[in-house]
Design a protein that fits this description.
The structure holds two protein chains of two kinds. Chain A has helices at 12-16, 22-41, 47-75, 83-98, 110-132, 137-157, 159-162, 199-223, 225-235, 237-243, 247-273, 280-283, 285-298, 304-323, 330-333, 345-363, 367-380, and strands at residues 168-169, 175-179, 182-185, 190-192, 195-197, 275-276. Chain A is mainly alpha-helical. In chain A, the strands form three sheets. In chain A, strands 1-6 form a two-stranded antiparallel ribbon. Chain A has a two-stranded antiparallel sheet with strand order 2-3. Chain B is mostly helical. In chain B, β1 (129-132) and β2 form a beta hairpin. In chain B, α1 packs antiparallel against α8 (185-209) and α2 (39-56) packs across α8. Classes of the chains: A mainly alpha, B mainly alpha. At the A-B interface, α6, α10, α13 and α16 of A face α4, α10 and α12 of B.
């Protein structure tokens, strides 16, 4: 049946559709092709491909973290600075199980330690979500901040689980399947589409595959009844409770799912780093702020927003590292040597990053997703776009 | 006993610093309903400014202090006017995030301008101690407590007995009504940020000068200032008196924990003292979600 207008929605089923238009379906196919072939293209031995593989793998991991934080903060309205705590939890769980600390050793199947990390993350999210019911807005932000510091202290003290201040090794094998002699270890060298690929490319496949899974999960939550309940909680939670939305169930549920996905991202982060020590710079407040920046720059309240934000935030430090001393204007103020006067690359990175947050919030609060939507709206209503 | 009094003096000094930083938070929160994460950054920046005026330009300590206070007050007011004014009407979360962005900016800017300065902030009390009985107490600690009391007292007098203070109180209660009465709410906002900046500098320079745990002049001061958050939560986000009580409590608790816990419960270790403020905060919030003196938020549906 012909539609009057591409975007016209006539019943609930139409509203629910994931890919209602042919352009969206085409985009999915294109993304799938990109997913399958980009790591192959970037699998070369030169340093540029290695850099970009690394950046994209990290971006995928951050995208999962961003999607989970978006569910909690963007859709349910519970602002949380505590994401770094769950990332650390997932990383140390994966490290404990698959990194040789536990009796099982290095050969543990990938899915086992990822799943256990998710379950542990969900449980801790439940423990935190229950008292969080009493707190709103500003108080919740500060409490989750305190949580990050508290958990950092626990990681430093609980040496059997995390190795204390010395840190712990992360799993070195990511065995996707091991069947009848065929084994695919994404962290080793494996063959795909005719070329041999290394651990960074394997991580790209793993991370972005899981991004698709996480995005689908959260999208399904958001476009159906629970999603509307969560948004009601975000807008006016007292009114939502009056109307019949159980605040207990949805607030705690949001925490549980968000922390489970964050723990998954954490496990992948551990795989990416290879070795993890619990200190302020790796698992503290800056990491939490980074995730908030991802969802703000990307677009709060959308699914693809955090993905865009993650790519931007993930790529930024590497880009600065690579190009700061070679670009003519920047090289005058940036020095590579921290002892001399001038801006170090790290400092420049942080400054650009903080300015990015401020500028996006002041001028484009809906983030990159908002910019994309405006472009879409312009072309959709062309030639009447004004 | 000597140990107890030493710890107590350190704790009170640290508590005075926390109370000053917490007061800055509360002043801004009462007027604008925004939690200013950048307060910690102003503490650091203020301490470095005092160092700059004192060391490089060889000014008197008090002159340097006034200069830094004026600078940070100006920075606060300008930031408020330039950036936060545009955010009126936006969700509160966005504004908090902007102040976090400002907080992030402080460390790279400070390390770029000053790198790692040799020497620190030299207070007029240096490292002298006075003896009370057979306890030696650092003069700097006493000076911090006295200065904190003076600043807080001055603030309370301002709040209570001047027209400006009345305008601030009115804006805190109801912005629209205050506007209707002819109070310039924009100026009240700028003034709140200026006061918070000035107060943060006092805390920062005393901390860098050797009060309490004496961390010296580093960007780690910002992390210490972050512990003023439990102080404001403990006292209640919109209560200046609560900020003082909360600050002193957290300061004393942290130093006492640092002094006694490693020997009493070795398993917890010496880093537990750094975490004690957050533990206290979590416990208090479970019992009284709005802090000891905070007002219950009434949400209209």
């Amino acid at each position: 049946m012909a539609r009057a207008n591409r975007t016209m929605v006539r019943d609930y089923r139409d509203d629910l559709r994931l890919f209602p238009t042919w352009t969206k379906r085409g985009a999915v196919v294109a993304l799938l092709a990109l997913y399958l072939f980009a790591p192959v293209v970037l699998g070369g031995a030169d340093s540029n491909s290695a850099l970009w593989s690394s950046v994209l793998a990290l971006a995928g991991i951050f995208a999962i973290g961003g999607i989970s934080l978006n569910l909690l903060t963007g859709y349910t309205g519970q602002p949380s600075l505590g994401h770094a705590a769950f990332i650390g939890l997932g990383a140390f769980t994966a490290g404990y199980l698959g990194g040789g600390r536990s009796p099982v050793g290095y050969d543990l199947n990938l899915w086992v330690y990822l799943l256990v990390a998710m379950v542990v993350g969900g449980l801790v999210g439940l423990i935190i979500g229950l008292p969080a019911l009493r707190l709103r807005g500003n108080y919740l932000v500060i409490v989750t901040l305190g949580l990050v510091f508290l958990l950092l202290y626990i990681w430093q003290k609980w040496t059997t689980f995390t190795g204390g201040n010395a840190g712990t090794a992360m799993p070195t094998k990511a065995v996707v399947y091991n069947v009848a002699g065929h084994k695919l270890d994404l962290l080793g060298n494996f063959k795909a589409f005719g070329s041999t690929l290394g651990p960074k490319q394997g991580l790209m496949y793993l991370a972005w595959g899981l991004v698709a899974v996480a995005a689908l999960l959260v999208k399904n939550i958001v476009r159906t009844r629970p999603g509307r309940a969560l948004q009601a909680v975000r807008d006016r939670d007292v009114a939502a409770e009056i109307v019949g939305v159980s605040l207990f169930r949805y607030k705690v549920g949001a925490f549980v799912i968000s922390s489970a996905l964050a723990a998954l991202a954490g496990a992948l982060y551990g795989l990416y780093l290879g070795y993890l020590t619990p200190d302020q710079s790796s698992l503290g407040l800056p990491l939490s702020i980074q995730f908030l920046a991802i969802i703000v720059v990307g677009g709060i309240g959308t699914i693809y927003g955090p993905v865009l934000g993650a790519i931007l935030v993930g790529a930024l430090p590497k880009l600065i590292d690579q190009y700061a001393t070679s670009l003519p204007l920047l090289s005058k103020i940036v020095t590579a040597d921290p002892a001399k006067s001038g801006l170090t690359k790290g400092a420049l990175g942080t400054i650009i990053y903080a300015l990015l947050i401020i500028v996006f919030l002041v001028f484009e609060p809906r983030g990159l997703a908002g910019i994309w939507r405006r472009i879409q709206a312009y072309f959709r209503s062309w030639p009447f776009s004004y | 006993m000597t140990k107890f009094f030493n710890l107590l003096s350190n704790g009170l000094a640290l508590g005075a610093v926390y109370a000053l930083v917490a007061l800055g938070f509360v002043v801004i929160y009462r007027a604008t309903r925004v939690i200013n994460f950048a307060q910690g950054g102003l503490v650091v920046f203020g301490a470095f400014l005092v160092y700059q005026a004192e060391h490089t330009w060889q000014w008197n300590f008090w002159l340097a202090a006034l200069f830094a206070m004026a600078c940070c007050a100006a920075i606060g007011a300008v930031f408020q006017g330039a950036v936060l004014r545009r955010m009126i009407g936006q969700p509160i979360f966005a504004v908090i995030l902007i102040t976090i962005g400002l907080f992030l900016l402080v460390e790279p800017i400070t390390t770029t301008i000053w790198h790692n300065p040799a020497g620190g902030v030299e207070t007029p009390w240096h490292l002298r101690t006075i003896a009370i009985g057979n306890v030696r107490i650092l003069e700097v600690n006493i000076a911090t407590i006295v200065m904190g009391a003076v600043v807080l007292g001055a603030f309370f007098l301002l709040f209570r007995y001047t027209k400006v203070g009345l305008a601030m109180r009115a804006t805190a209660v109801d912005q629209e009504a205050a506007l209707a009465q002819g109070i310039s709410v924009g100026r009240v906002f700028a003034l709140s940020w200026a006061i918070a900046g000035a107060v943060a500098v006092v805390g920062g320079m005393m901390l860098a000068g050797g009060a309490g745990p004496a961390p010296g002049l580093t960007v780690g001061l910002g992390l210490i200032a972050l512990r003023a958050f439990p102080a404001i939560i403990l006292g209640g986000l919109d209560s200046p008196g609560g900020a003082v009580v909360g600050g002193l409590t957290i300061g004393i608790a942290q130093v006492m924990a640092g002094g006694y816990i490693p020997t009493a419960i070795p398993a917890l270790g010496s880093e537990f003292a750094d975490v004690v403020p957050y533990v206290i905060m979590l416990v208090v919030l479970l019992i009284r979600p709005y802090g000891l003196f905070g007002e219950r938020e009434v949400t209209r549906v």
